[in-house]
Amino acid sequence: MSLSNKEHNCEEMHLSIEHPCCERKKKAGQAPPRVHRWLFWLLPLAGLVGLASQVTVLAYCFGDGFSNLMYPTNPVLLICLGLTTVRYSKWLAWSLPLWLAVIAASVAFLGLAVAVGYGPF
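^ that's the sequence the OP posted. Answer follows.
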């Protein structure tokens, strides 16, 4: 089955990864390869301490979401800082209070998720 580069829905057509459109979608983000590495270890450990798997995935999403904005090897961060006159050290000092607020909010929401018994569905 040969397909051109027309607009299509890869999921509906059950395409393999060999199609160029599907290949771009697979490489778009960096989180999917890390998810399999980390959750393979985190989900059984969470089960041992009595946490639902949804709380573990929620904690991973919180951590992955805002930690990418701090890594100096993140290409999006480097490109954005390169387009401005802001140095990484100055941006790091400016964003640290925001980071601490996000960490506190994440801990509060994770505590709420555990308290209300979020999951299993």
